[in-house]
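hey so u asked for the seq, here:
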Amino acid sequence: MTPPNPSFAEEIKASFAKQTIMGLIGAQLSRVEPGVVEITLPYRPDLTQQHGYLHAGIVTTIADSACGYAAYTLMPPASEVLSVEFKVNLLRPAKGEVFLAVAEVVKSGRTLTVVRADVFGSYQSGRHELVATMLGTMMCLQ
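ran it, structure tokens below
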């Protein structure tokens, strides 16, 4: 898959750095490739809900950003990306030492791109648990 914008990776890194919410929660880009983006987030007690699990809003935030940037990797130069719609299934309590949102383009279009993201709770032992999945539609603005 050849992206139409040869500088997509640098543009995504610059855009991600401007998202103050990502800095606020401590999320980082961990992979940027054509059609695929990963975001990692270390567990922090201040990002949890009343039972100590990562809050669903935080899970959704990293999945949405990963989906948007995965779509952006296949958009033409001078484009912008916006979420149009998404559905999140929270599959189990979000437990882990680090969370990983892995987004991959399902279908890239001229205006709309469909992307899927899975969010995993990971442990130093190597164990990974799928905690949520998102299916999103992203819009290319030119």
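The helical segments are 8-18, 20-25, 56-72. The CA atoms of residues 75 and 109 lie 9 Å apart.
lmk if thats what u needed
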